[in-house]
Amino acid sequence: MKLTLGKFHVRDIQFSDKSYFHEGVLHICKKELAAHLLQDSRIKEIDFDIARPGESTRIVPVKDIIQPRYKVSGGGQVFPGFVGEFDTVGQGVTHSLEGCCVATTGQIVAFQEGIIDMSGPGTKYNSFSRMCILALLITPVDNIGKHAHEETVRVAGLKTAAYLGEMTKDLVPEETETFKTDPISDLSKLYPGLPRVVYTYMIQCQGLMHDTYVYGLNVKGILPTMIEPTEVLDGAIVSGNCASPGHKNTSLHHMQNPVILNLLRRHGKDLCFAGVIITIESALLADKKRSAFYASNLARLIGAEGAIITEEGGGNPETDLMLNCKYFEANGIKTVLITDEYAGRDGASQGLADVTPEADAVITNGNGNEYITLPKMDKIIGKLENVKIITGGNASSIGEDGSVSVEIAAIMGSLCELGYEKMTTRLR
């Protein structure tokens, strides 16, 4: 498959009387976008706000982050199963708005939602702070159940990202990047001598609003399956996850998965990228073993010699991570694991909830218990009081001067286990 991303760089977002993109500025008609989203009868009210890099602005709580995209050719539309007519993605041409994102806000599962600061020390913990952000402030109808509330907010975010992306439909991209994959049957003759590497993509699907969607399907309970790397980049995987904000994969993380991007860019040069295996993180030990066993056998069937395995979340998913490592290594496939840690505020505690002797090549994206004080911001998008109950916060998190003291697990995407940020852990 071949996918070309046509990139448009956004320098600013402004509200206007019509929606269009011109010379780096995304103009948004609030009335038109609201009418588009209010077609969902579960939304009672909707409003929008803009946050720009460098501003004294804090967004809290944040549920998901989505990059605006529009599919120009190649079938279907981005976010298949949620937006437009259903079709496969991963090929053709897709337009991408770089340097901006959509943030959905709202109290869904209270303690699991995150913080984004647009200035101050919090900005070094996530890349969203360096983007122009359109924040959706969604109020659902009265007496809506929490699962319907989550779905309402999730779909509204995806529809908004597609709406913004469509503004580029008739425009010429500022730059393009093309990614190409090869049939598995051709890899041996095309790339003899190059190590064959598979990417094992662990995703949250434990229920209780820890869910991920592939082509619109909640993947809870599926067996590990293969997917084209370009399908992932084209919006086939969507977050419905209300897990801890520091290390959940937002929809944007899936669309810009750095492991996939780097493997594609190195494919045919110093390695042979054999494909992506999606494997679930279940809450049941039997399911964990089944998935790890099945994923390792898939990798063996396609002749993988090495595997990169990324975790999502923490705690019991570390058992999934270690079982994958153990079974892959038993099949003669060398593994590299990517995770994060919760090693206490002093860094002296055991960082992972599970280990295995085979895990001798592990990359960690930081310690979620690291404590930080974020200064008062002039503008709050959302509700500051939520800081007290989100992951990493506590009843004393809000200071009398308006500052916020939290563990960095509270900051959206700070510990992303795909390696999206620049955090790591250093042994002393």
List the helices and strands and how they pair.
Elements: E1 2-9, E2 12-15, E3 20-22, E4 25-28, H1 30-37, E5 43-51, E6 57-66, E7 69-73, E8 92-98, E9 100-105, E10 114-117, E11 132-140, H2 146-165, E12 175-180, H3 187-190, E13 196-204, E14 212-214, E15 217-218, E16 225-227, H4 229-233, E17 237-239, H5 251-255, H6 258-266, E18 272-281, H7 285-301, E19 306-310, H8 317-330, E20 334-341, E21 362-367, E22 371-374, E23 379-382, E24 404-407
Parallel strand pairs: 1-8, 2-4, 6-23, 9-11, 13-18, 13-19, 19-20, 20-21
Antiparallel strand pairs: 1-12, 3-4, 5-11, 6-9, 6-10, 7-8, 14-15, 14-17, 16-18, 22-24
What are the salient characteristics of this protein?
428 residues, alpha/beta, 6-stranded mixed β-sheet, 8 helices, 24 strands
Distance between the termini: 45 Å
Gyration radius (Cα, Å) is 21 Å
Strand content: 25-35%
Shape: globular
Structural class: alpha/beta
> What is the overall pLDDT average?
94
What is the number of helical segments per DSSP (H or I, 4+ residues)? 8
The biggest beta sheet, please? 6 strands, mixed
What is the helix content?
Answer: 10-25%
Low-confidence stretches: none
**Beta-strand segment tally:** 24
